[in-house]
Amino acid sequence: MDLGIKGRWAILSGSSRGLGWACAQSIAREGANVVINGRTSADVDEAVAQLTSLYRVEARGVVGDSAMASVQDELMSACPEPDIVLLNGQGPSPKAFLDIESEDWDSAVRQALTGPLALLQRVVPGMRDRGFGRIVAVSSAMVKSPNSLMSLSHGTRLGLTGVLKGLSKDLAKYNVTVNQLLPERFDTARQEQMAHVAMKILGITYEEARAQQIASIKAGRLGRPEEFGDAFAFLCAAQAGYISGQNLQLDGGSYEGVF
Amino acid sequence: MDLGIKGRWAILSGSSRGLGWACAQSIAREGANVVINGRTSADVDEAVAQLTSLYRVEARGVVGDSAMASVQDELMSACPEPDIVLLNGQGPSPKAFLDIESEDWDSAVRQALTGPLALLQRVVPGMRDRGFGRIVAVSSAMVKSPNSLMSLSHGTRLGLTGVLKGLSKDLAKYNVTVNQLLPERFDTARQEQMAHVAMKILGITYEEARAQQIASIKAGRLGRPEEFGDAFAFLCAAQAGYISGQNLQLDGGSYEGVF
Amino acid sequence: MDLGIKGRWAILSGSSRGLGWACAQSIAREGANVVINGRTSADVDEAVAQLTSLYRVEARGVVGDSAMASVQDELMSACPEPDIVLLNGQGPSPKAFLDIESEDWDSAVRQALTGPLALLQRVVPGMRDRGFGRIVAVSSAMVKSPNSLMSLSHGTRLGLTGVLKGLSKDLAKYNVTVNQLLPERFDTARQEQMAHVAMKILGITYEEARAQQIASIKAGRLGRPEEFGDAFAFLCAAQAGYISGQNLQLDGGSYEGVF
Amino acid sequence: MDLGIKGRWAILSGSSRGLGWACAQSIAREGANVVINGRTSADVDEAVAQLTSLYRVEARGVVGDSAMASVQDELMSACPEPDIVLLNGQGPSPKAFLDIESEDWDSAVRQALTGPLALLQRVVPGMRDRGFGRIVAVSSAMVKSPNSLMSLSHGTRLGLTGVLKGLSKDLAKYNVTVNQLLPERFDTARQEQMAHVAMKILGITYEEARAQQIASIKAGRLGRPEEFGDAFAFLCAAQAGYISGQNLQLDGGSYEGVF
């Protein structure tokens, strides 16, 4: 299937590893040029090198926390007219509701709500003017099925979900779509990290923690990052311009609710 | 993007025209063999001929109402081991709630609920045994945003939505996914028909009726059938096995609700 | 709290036992006159006798299946101008999806979808003309969280949910509200019956079956029928005229989804 | 209907005027003692005086912004063991998405997300220990139906919605319920203010602005604050302990979505 994005430019925050990296690979394979972003220059450089060696695309790298204004400056310098934007960032660690402190909220809000929205304020006017835009945020299954241990995550990501939905209504007529992907348990470093959290909290072995992760998924397996990347690529396609304001769950069929 | 469905077999109910026909084209282009189904042999024959001339796939035709047991017998004979099933059928005409009669319900229930489910009862055991299945139903935006004039439509399609969701939970572990596509105003004969209904009910011209359709869509245009077909193709992809129980709206960003 | 329904008349289908009976008691206590309906005259007569002895209200009884036209004739004769209507009926038994037969659907559709809607077609015009109506359906938690074993239940009740939502939009301006209550595990004969089903299917004792029911509820207990009745009474209140199209879950906080 | 809350104590943030004041009146009428909170001592004093003269309850007043730690200290001093907590605060003004600044978010997050949650962290342990709690937040219809002009509102209130849902799951077993009320256009000073915003933005008269507000509501009227107050009172009732994690819309039947 030709996705019609050859030669498009993408700013991909949080794309040097994990799900973001899978997204980068999927659209580079389809011919899109990308700006890779991550916390360390080693990761970013390697990602850029891999993409340019594997695919006939341009790739640039920006190191740093994409929620920061200075890093957003660099992202925009690297790609002043993005057609595609991926909003992705590290989620907060689990924390019991009663233990959450004011600083935890400050950090989570900046990472998951105000940082990403500030980036959108920079890119939306141009997308609107140019008549093409594909904005996709990596959210979490938690936003539809909250668990109090992850309050910092869904407490901010649900806010983002709402703002993006409102925005999607305004932008549809400019062929600018805004969607979210809601992953639940993909086989990335994040799940490794969550397994170690579970080992500590529950006093279980690594194998037990991983088995619990799999048992929580109706598909009976973790998701593969490339499955995630290809779903992202599809939402970026030229022919996906009629799909907006959606929250697509990639969770192995695990969500309980009908909608 | 390689969807990994080359050589797969698909039973596509209601696929000789409109959205179903677009679905057929999209997966045939990706190399899937298809059984075309429609109400008239002229349409079915032409669709089969087009597909086999355009793509290197096998195509067979079954004429008749796919909600009928005898037609389902023929569909299963034409393709005893389907990998992909599209549930698609003509929706009922608008009717004021107080005017709906018992026979209207009988017909709508058979077309949109019990007929499609009877077909699934035939195909699910085999998909489960073979470890691959992609079931997609064409539903309607109405199921999330009901309008009493379309009670016959969402009164049955929401029922189907629920049954498919329950089923999706059972089948995820067999790599059998069950999803729905929710179109809102695609440029097909259905919208032509709805425009003529609106002309009668509201006493407006054809042009006004079409303009009203477009005005109801936030994207400011009707959807193109091939956009629908490609979304269907993506949900049928090998790499879409982690996506199940979803109701993907293709509505130009028009749905009001956050979820 | 004065609910402002003293002297109002209510048709309560399925109200001689269980949750329906609790609804009857709650509004009779508030001074509403009621028509009791149930399958056996013994139950209906006793319910009528209890209400008239306990409260200063009129109570009448109609025996029979409220989904039948003849019984609906009697209900309307007993109360030609109802202000309140409760839609309640026995749910179908659990059945594996692949075992469901055409006749199962016929029966479930009549009981849970077309029967209740036929009753509404009788009462809605009068409510609209009189400028007051409170329509409440007893649905099930399953409609938001389907389980394939209960396909006959949510496959029909979700359809009803949709039709009622559409209808609620039309009727709001006449001070006619339409809402649903979604119970999950109340301490009634229904749960006794479900426990016996579980004993057979799972090979467990009665005590284990009951413990499993309680374990499935986040509140750690079954609901009390009078809690259900009072929620119904509140939705019937004069001051509840601004609440319509709602699906209120009474499930001890068990539903996973955010909406 | 006896709500069973006579003698209970309630902390009601934002309760000297508007919807919060209606909530205070409704539960004071049912015999609950209340702590009134508002921005000016004139309002708070008058509210306290009215309640104590009208009902046989104790009422205390705390002046100040309830999102501030110091004001929360005073609220807890005035009522160390609350049985009922109302989370209510002034919503932010409408603002175009591209004009929102970092400081706008800081303020909105504090008012609608972190401030209310900090208050909950103070009251939840006691409610849990005492085995009774009724937490109700006044949210907005926007959380289910976002409009980009109100991004500051739903961008924070949806976050709160998620955190409260997660929390509700943990607290159900302690007879502590957590619910939200979602008002849409009640006849309070807030709608006066919104009318003046509309006059400026749209260049319309006051009468036109008010007519537009009414036209947006399917019930054809604004809600009455006392309707809101009584819905709050019902959720606080002893017999509402099985209702938790709900988002009850009070919107005159206006919400489009089925759930």
Q: What is the count of helical runs of chain A?
A: 8
CATH topology of the largest domain in chain A: Rossmann fold
Instruction: Estimate percent helicity of chain A.
Output: 40-55%
Helix-strand category of chain A: alpha/beta
Major interchain interface with per-chain residue totals: C-D, 49 and 50 residues
How many strand elements of chain A?
7
Average pLDDT of chain A works out at 97
What value does the Rg of chain A take, in angstroms?
A: 18 Å
CATH class of the largest domain in chain A: Alpha Beta
The multimeric state of the shown protein is homotetramer
Mind summarizing the main beta sheet of chain A? Answer: 7 strands, parallel
What form of chain A results from the Cα inertia axes? Answer: globular
CATH architecture of the largest domain in chain A: 3-Layer(aba) Sandwich
The poorly predicted ranges of chain A are none
Strand % of chain A is 5-15%
CATH superfamily placement of the largest domain in chain A: NAD(P)-binding Rossmann-like Domain
Q: State the domain count of chain A.
A: 2
**Cα-to-Cα separation, first versus last residue of chain A:** 28 Å
3D structure, described in words:
The structure is a homotetramer of 259-residue chains. The first copy, chain A, has 259 residues and is of the alpha/beta class. Chain A has two domains: 9-185 and 224-250, NAD(P)-binding Rossmann-like Domain (Rossmann fold); 187-222, no CATH class. Helix content of chain A is 47%, strand content 14%. Chain A has helices at residues 18-29, 41-54, 69-78, 102-130, 151-171, 189-202, 206-215, 225-236; strands at residues 9-12, 33-38, 59-63, 84-87, 133-138, 176-183, 247-250. In chain A, strands 3-2-1-4-5-6-7 form a seven-stranded parallel beta sheet, sandwiched between helices. In chain A, strand 4 (84-87), helix 4 and strand 5 (133-138) form a beta-alpha-beta unit. In chain A, helix 1 (18-29) packs across helix 8, helix 4 (102-130) runs parallel beside helix 5 (151-171) and helix 6 crosses helix 7. The longest helix of chain A is centred in the middle third of the chain and has 29 residues, at 102-130. Chain A is globular, with a radius of gyration of 18 Å. Chain A starts with 8 loop residues before the first strand and ends in a 9-residue tail after the last strand. The model of chain A has no long low-confidence stretch (mean pLDDT 97). Chains in contact: A-B, A-C, A-D, B-C, B-D, C-D. The interface between C and D is large, with 49 and 50 residues.
